[in-house]
Amino acid sequence: MADKKKDTATKKASKKDATPKATLPPSGFRVAVREILRSKSALTALIIIILILLLTFGGSLFLNRAQITEMNIVDAYYGWGQGGHLLGTDDGGRDILKLLIMGGRNSIMIGISVTVITEIVGLVVGLVSGYYGGVVDAIIMRIVDFIQILPQMPIIIVLTTVIPNYNAVTLVFLIAMFGWTPTARYYRSFILSQRDRDYVLASKTSGSSNFQIMFREVLPNITSMIIIDVVLTIAGNIGIETSLSFLGYGLPTTTPSLGTLIGFANDPVNVINRPWLWLPATILLLVISLSINYVGRALQRAGDARQREN
Amino acid sequence: MAKEIIQIKDLKVYYPIRSGFWNRITDYVRAVDGVNFSINEGETYGLIGESGSGKSTTGKAIVGVEKVTGGQIMYKGLDVTKASNRKKLDYNKDVQMIFQDSMSSLNPRKRIEDIIAEPIRNFENLTTDQERDRVQDLLDIVGMPSDAIYKYPHEFSGGQRQRIGVARAVATNPKLIVADEPTSALDLSVQAQVLNFMKHIQQQYNIAYLFISHDLGVVKHMSENLAIMHRGRLVELGSREEIYKHPIHIYTKRLLSAIPQVDVEHREEHKKHREQVEKEFEENQGKWYDKDGRVYPLQQVAPKHWVALPEDMAQEAELEEREEKESD
Ligand SMILES: Nc1ncnc2c1ncn2[C@@H]1O[C@H](COP(=O)(O)OP(=O)(O)O)[C@@H](O)[C@H]1O
Ligand SMILES: [Mg+2]
Fold it and tell me: Domain named ABC transporter: which ranges (chain B) (predicted)?
């Protein structure tokens, strides 16, 4: 009875708008957008992120790396706004603003590259581990445990000194080598909560292979978790690159990055007398991290709401 | 005599219980512990028991999505507990399942078209147009409007979703469908509707159902043969006549007394009867279950009637039943 009523109701509704329209259950992406638009702080953060991306990536298009890293001792240590350098110059007479733009782009690129690798590896490993469970899961998780207890920073530092031809790409791989483990663990937990749902069993009885079930059936159900993790991991990875460069084990000094700029603060004289060297980069890093985190948290709230609905 | 389509022989499904520092297996949950029965072509076979008695596990083992610990499931002469045999037979083309929770059994991120077409794509070679026609036909059979194919599961009511589940299950013209409490999550009125569609489809395509339920009332008008399950074992098995008219095991009697009665006049009597059965069930555990609380092996007490009893009681029961029938 109740069903019939609903039936006629839907018929009436579909008559009104003749084109059949399907509404996807609020997808990860749409919930994310809605949640960000609803929260003022998240929206502000998103706008800031977009501005920073425009500034660094757009600005870098007009810059030439060889030119801005060129030594010009005559112009060394200009202060704020001196000699036409808005943020002054460093010991080699290089313009800090230009270094900041290109360095910001490099740091963000490295953060994104590391994230792409760790997300893909972590997602596949987490999927396989959580979906198959049992022995496969036990073995994979012990490997993950092992990698996680290794002291990440010292090992990366040692490797940076022994690897010949050390550059941005090698740095990305070094960071990614450790970065996939928490991601794998994170996705595994969501897969575990999905794999006993009846739709997985129904797919099995429908003759789909495990591979198809993992990637075609289960994966779309955790998209919002993926969005959240990608956003938060990018912020974390920018941080790792920056701290390595700050310690002098990150990118070579010929490649500008936020870390190398902040690294000027290693010298006490610079800290006190030449704040233009390190302060802008520090602020930029802080703003990027905070903004990304604000957006990430908003997404997380949206994700939690979805979890509750399920 | 109808032809048997599937035989379940001494089926066992144990789940390990892990504990202690080394997380070693210390014991097992005997979810299904030595179950035997056969289903005939085109019949509805009822599998009844309270929640936790191992019905779903039995059903999942039969469709091949649960790893079995022991025993055999014979289909077309092959033991389909082995994945290789299932593959050889395209087993799931013939044996499908309808799930209890219609929400969780439909992938929320897929359109109805893709959900129903999934088994067709995997088991049959159809062109896109043929496939769409087939999906439309199936929706038609379960009384769903044709624009449903563009929609997602959350846009439907529970009864409608369950009908979509039925449509998916019959998509490949199966011979046997395991229906795991297909209506227990639905309103009474909607229940009847879904059951009617299921019956209708059965008659049209000669499908056998293993109809799982916790309610003897629901299956009364559905199934020719029944098995009553408790603690992973069968306590009573037989034709509908035998089970409803001459129940022997106290657990069966208890399930029967739990069927809600509409009869207002005899309400008091029913209540008394129910309490009496409950009391006997509580007090006579030792009589109906062995010293470990395990269900006894089945003994035949009539041509179409088996009951789990110790041997001496079985002969008694057989005599009693014969007398009872003579007096009928
Ligand atoms: N994956 C599992 N792991 C451990 N125990 C399980 C699992 N699935 C079911 N069980 C246990 O097996 C028993 C039977 O469960 P089930 O077949 O779902 O019963 P029913 O469908 O009759 O309610 C229950 O005691 C349940 O707790
Ligand atoms: Mg169940």
Answer: 6-256
Supply A181's token pair.
């483990």
Nearest ligand (C-alpha, residue B60): 1
Structure tokens at A31: 């919930």
Here the tokens at position A202 are 């129904």
Interface test with A, best of B22, B101, B104 (most A CBs within 10 A): B104
The strand pairing partners of B230, in sequence order, are: B233
Q: How far is the C-alpha of A281 from the C-alpha of A102, rounded, in Å? A: 11
Q: First and final CA of chain B: distance in angstroms?
A: 25
Count Cβ–Cβ pairs < 8 Å, chain A vs chain B.
100
Reduced DSSP (H G I as helix, E B as strand, rest coil) percent helix, strand, coil of chain A, to 5:
80, 0, 20
Tokens of B225: 């043969």
Q: For residue B225, give the 3-state DSSP assignment.
A: strand
For residue B57, which atom of ligand 1 is closest to its CA? Answer: 17
H or E element at residue B36: strand B24-40
In 3D, which of B174, B252, B263 has the Cα closest to residue B216? Answer: B252
Provide long-range contacts, Cβ within 8 A and 24+ apart, for B153-156.
Answer: B153/A25, B153/B103, B153/B106, B153/B107, B153/B108, B153/B110, B153/B112, B153/B115, B154/A25, B154/B108, B155/A22, B155/A23
Domain boundaries in chain A?
Answer: 29-309
Using DSSP, state whether B163 is helix, strand or coil: helix
Cα distance between residue B174 and residue B115, in whole Å: 17
Residue spans of chain A under pLDDT 70: 1-28, 303-310
pLDDT in tens, B250-303: 999 999 988 877 777 888 888 888 888 888 888 888 888 888 888 999 989 889
Compute the distance between CA of residue A162 and CA of residue B96 in angstroms, rounded to an integer: 59
Encode A144-174: b = buried (16+ Cβ within 10 Å), e = exposed. Answer: beebeeeebeeebbebbeeeeebebeebbeb
Q: What angle do CA A182, A184, A188 make, to 5 degrees?
A: 120
Please, which residues have CB less than 5 A from ligand 2, an ion?
Answer: B 56
CATH of domain A29-309: 1.10.3720.10
